[in-house]
Amino acid sequence: MLEQRDLQSFEENLPFWKRVTDQERQVLIDGTIRFTHAKGDIVHEDRNKCTGLLLVVTGQLRVYIISETGKEITLYRLFDRDVCILSASCLIRNITFDVHVMAERETTMLRIATDAYQQVGKSNPHVQDFTNQLVSSRFSDVMWVVEQVVFMSLDRRIAMHLLEQAAIAGEDSLSITHEAIARDLGTAREVVTRMLSRFQDDRLVSLSRGGITLVDRDALTALT
Amino acid sequence: MLEQRDLQSFEENLPFWKRVTDQERQVLIDGTIRFTHAKGDIVHEDRNKCTGLLLVVTGQLRVYIISETGKEITLYRLFDRDVCILSASCLIRNITFDVHVMAERETTMLRIATDAYQQVGKSNPHVQDFTNQLVSSRFSDVMWVVEQVVFMSLDRRIAMHLLEQAAIAGEDSLSITHEAIARDLGTAREVVTRMLSRFQDDRLVSLSRGGITLVDRDALTALT
């Protein structure tokens, strides 16, 4: 059962909400559930399951792809008020790839079921518009990843990543593993460890068992 | 001035062509020119110029991105009857990246001007649908590139590339340079040269000044 605050989330974050009929709005509400995933949970795994449209109320989602051998690369992250469209990619013709979505913190979401969203999208062009704009945004996010992977050296990418993670965490002491950085950047753990050791030798970061602390933000920024 | 065969190209390759009004069709026709680019010509360079929608009549286009330092990676190629949408990306909200388009052979195209296409797209949802489906297709193409770059070893990528180029050329003797392969795959020429020398030592290909000949297709295929 949705609460008043959930309807407010819709109103504030779905630009089409004020442009659907009462009947369409009811279809969407009836097709929505609110649920919470613990940190580390897989939220969406396979596009054939077509989880639905996910509106993040609070929390953090990582959207990534994974190879046959288990190698990963992060495509983008979603935060409070963001909407995940690729978890409903079965709705979008010509999207032929699968993504995975994991909760990086405890995350509360509103999930609009695929059939409810599809039903309203068919009758209401504003909903269709919203879908298409989300697809284009994610396409742009992925192009940014392509540019980083192909055009940037790994020291630069790791420096950018550390600064970005510090901005997300709101502090300079990060509880992240070398493995997690490797998964984000689509590289091997050994390569990350080697680069971080070099950063430590250069007094840019300090490494501990529990994580990584940024020591010289200016020098890290200069690398990017 | 368009000819009868151009209208036939539209009818055969634009799925919305039969679902626009006579007036809309006239707007599109008035906004279209047929033109030919020589091999090697840059067809589209900057999304701000918003070249327009390009329908390839005959020829071959390479769509790629280029870094500040001039490094390139090919996103996809377009052949006869394909439509290039990213050359009209100014029409698509939330597409924030630029691509370049080059003619790899002499290429004849029909170009629908951005404003004509936009005008008809606003009034006709089938045109909008077509745009969105093209965007999703290209998004899927780019995800394929991401998977290749991040998950596949370079020997595998080069083997796949040689087989693909042989399929496009229709023969096993390819007039391509190591530099061109490097640009396609987003890597350095030296790296390609080293791998091709290894392929030659293993009797998979034979290298000459003019190009590369596939010698053992089965072994190349086994690599992929």
Briefly characterize the structure:
Helix content of chain A is 45%, strand content 22%.
Can you tell me the number of structural domains of chain A?
Answer: 2
Q: How many individual β-strands of chain A?
A: 11
Our estimate of the beta-strand percent of chain A is: 15-25%
Largest sheet features of chain A:
4 strands, antiparallel
The top-level CATH class of the largest domain in chain A is: Mainly Beta
Would you identify the regions of chain A where 5 or more consecutive residues have pLDDT less than 50? none
CATH superfamily of the largest domain in chain A: Jelly Rolls
Separation of the first and last Cα atoms of chain A: 47 Å
Structural category of chain A is alpha+beta
Average pLDDT value of chain A?
A: 94
Give the CATH architecture of the largest domain in chain A: Sandwich
The ordered H/E elements of chain A are HHEEEEEEEEHHHEHHEEH
Q: Which shape of chain A, going by the Cα principal axes?
A: elongated
Can you tell me the CATH topology of the largest domain in chain A?
A: Jelly Rolls
For the biggest β-sheet of chain A, the strand order reads 1-8-3-6
Oligomer: homodimer
Q: Specify the helix fraction band of chain A.
A: 40-55%
Global Rg of chain A: 19 Å
